[in-house]
Specification:
The protein is α+β, with helices and mostly antiparallel strands. The protein contains 6 helices and 34 strands. Among the domains are: 143 residues, conserved putative lor/sdh protein from methanococcus maripaludis s2 fold, CATH 2.40.420.20; 63 residues, Beta Barrel (OB fold (Dihydrolipoamide Acetyltransferase, E2P)), CATH 2.40.50. Helices cover 19% and strands 41% of the residues. The chain is elongated. The two termini are 40 Å apart.
Length: 550
């Protein structure tokens, strides 16, 4: 690969000759700094295969390796869910059937507070609702009855034979309005020999022959006499009533005979109209309308007229409001009753219990920071989580499901793993920089993690593995010099001896490189270097040492 040079790179660093007068205080301070820097640098050297070189540069080899790209940040461990029980009412605690450290389940009762006052209020409210409901129902029923009774409807099908009242007349309930005669349906009562009639039944088909015309009609038995009578010739007969449709020519003077099966009536009978009814008023008041005249044909249930309405709606509306108010009072009382029994909305472990049976609760005296601000605190330890605030530049690389590794500040030497559960799009901007919360779920159950020492409230340092890359050419991040175009220091002609040692750092050259992805320690080289080439890293410790001992 062609090497690129830069004239400025060949300029030798300017060193000052050591002063004869020694500055011991300055050297002591410098030694402390140098020890720390050298320790850090030697660690980097061991990780990246870097060998120390004399002077102000350290060598490192461009090598193919696996690269792990991560987004890092701090967080605070918290349980999967937390419930802090508070009271909305005051009173004596009747029971608190749980203890600290106890496992409880969703909907388990935590506290029962004396609710005798509100129970009395509920009973009174229930009585008020019952009374209001009865009053309302009575008024509505009366209105409905009146509405129905106000309507004048035919109580039978037939022809109007007489009308007793006119529109505008004051009519009292029970007054006749009209007579209706059913001429469409006829009845024929004829005798049959008793021995035959006893075998008949209501609903049985029958054939009727009209006397004089010999017209045949088909009907149905509607009635059979219960007792016998003496017919012509002294024979025992039973009267059988047969209903037929009036073909139009029958009247109450027409006669006919009948046959049931193959049995004929012993004598003829006279047809009768099916039914004659009188229409009676069910309402008292002014008859507002009546569309009815003698000779009109009407049908059963037909609306014929209407009485003027007696207004009741105002009373009903007032009763409805009274009922609604009573129902609201009852519901409010029931809602208050629910506040006297406190249950857990989650499964979890009791972390705190601040009240017991016999204690008095008064929410008005509790403070948000006081010892008794919460009745109890429950942690859902089924799993542990924490949030990392990720910058807007890095959050685009974070996805749900990515692996996370982290350590806890309080637990030396232990590493834990987790997975990204949620990337919150609701960012927070501060000083012109926006960050987004990323929720991490820790691998393993909360109880197992607690046994390992990982507890809610601990501070952690986490790395979200956004990418794992295999077999890439990489060098230490510190080897890259940042400018408009990134570059590295490589050995020019005469810079190294035959053994590969740097002997003349003034002959180091700048080589432009194209960079790829990076971890905290190494960065991918896309172009500009070949595997096995050596780059040189400015040795900050050596530079400081030179300056401090001048």
């Amino acid at each position: 690969m062609a090497k690129q040079t830069n004239a400025s790179a060949k300029e030798a660093p300017q060193f000052q000759a050591p002063k004869k007068k020694k500055k011991w205080l300055k050297r002591i301070i410098a030694l402390t700094v140098i020890v720390a820097l050298l320790a850090l640098f030697l660690t980097q050297c061991m990780k990246g295969g870097v060998q120390t070189a004399s002077g102000s540069y350290l060598p490192a080899t461009a090598a193919v390796q696996d690269l792990t790209v991560a987004v890092t940040g701090p967080g605070t461990v918290k349980p999967n869910d937390t419930y802090r029980a508070t009271a909305l009412v005051k009173g004596e605690v009747l029971s608190a059937p749980f203890e600290e450290g106890q496992e409880i389940h969703k909907d388990d009762t935590l506290f029962v507070i004396d609710a005798s006052d509100v129970e009395t209020a509920i009973q009174q409210a229930q009585l008020s609702v019952q009374s209001a409901q009865l009053n309302y129902d009575s008024l509505v029923r009366t209105r409905n009855d009146n509405t129905q009774d106000r309507q004048v409807k035919a109580n039978a099908s037939g022809v109007v034979t007489k009308v007793y009242v006119d529109p505008g007349d004051p009519v009292a309930a029970g007054t006749p309005i009209a007579d209706i005669l059913d001429r469409d349906n006829m009845k024929l009562k004829v005798p049959f020999h008793s021995v035959n009639a006893t075998a008949f039944y209501v609903g049985q088909s029958a054939t009727v022959t009209v006397s004089g015309t010999a017209e045949t009609l088909y009907g149905t038995i509607t009635e059979i006499a219960a007792t016998d009578s003496v017919g012509a010739g002294g024979t025992l007969v039973r009267n059988v009533t047969i209903a037929v449709q009036n073909p139009g020519a029958l009247s109450n003077t027409s006669m006919g005979s009948a046959m049931v099966g193959e049995v004929s009536s012993s004598a003829s009978g006279t047809f009768q109209y099916g039914e004659s009814k009188q229409l009676i008023a069910k309402y008292s008041g002014e008859l507002q309308t009546l569309d009815l005249n003698e000779g009109d044909k009407v049908y059963d249930g037909q609306l014929l007229g209407e009485f003027k309405e007696t207004k009741m709606q105002d009373q009903i509306d007032a009763a409805a409001i009274q009922l609604q108010n009573a129902q609201l009072s009852l519901q409010n009382a029931k809602d208050r009753l629910e506040d006297y029994t406190i249950t857990s909305p989650i499964d979890g472990t009791v972390i705190e219990k601040n009240y017991k049976a016999g204690d008095n609760i008064d929410p008005s005296t509790a403070t948000a920071t006081g010892a008794n601000a919460f009745l109890a605190v429950i942690y859902d330890m089924s799993r542990l989580t924490f949030d990392i605030n990720v910058s807007e530049m890095d959050v685009v690389r974070v996805e749900v499901g990515q692996k996370v590794t982290f350590t806890a500040d309080a637990l030396d030497g232990q590493e834990f793993t987790g997975v990204v559960e949620k990337v919150n799009i609701n960012g927070t901007t501060q000083n012109g920089n926006t960050s987004y919360p990323v929720t991490v779920v820790v691998d393993g159950s909360g109880s197992d993690l607690a046994a390992q020492g990982l507890l809610p409230g601990m501070s952690v340092s986490a790395s979200i593995i956004v990418e794992e890359i295999a077999d890439v050419l990489a060098i230490p991040v510190d080897a890259v010099q940042r400018s408009e175009t990134p570059y590295v220091f490589v050995a020019g002609e005469g810079a190294m001896d035959d053994k590969g040692n740097l002997v003349d750092f003034t002959k180091l050259e700048q080589r432009t490189v194209e960079l790829g992805r990076n971890s905290d320690e190494f960065i991918e080289i896309l172009s500009g270097l070949e595997e096995g080439e050596t780059v040189f890293i400015p040795n900050a410790a050596s530079s400081i040492m030179s300056q401090m001992f001048m």
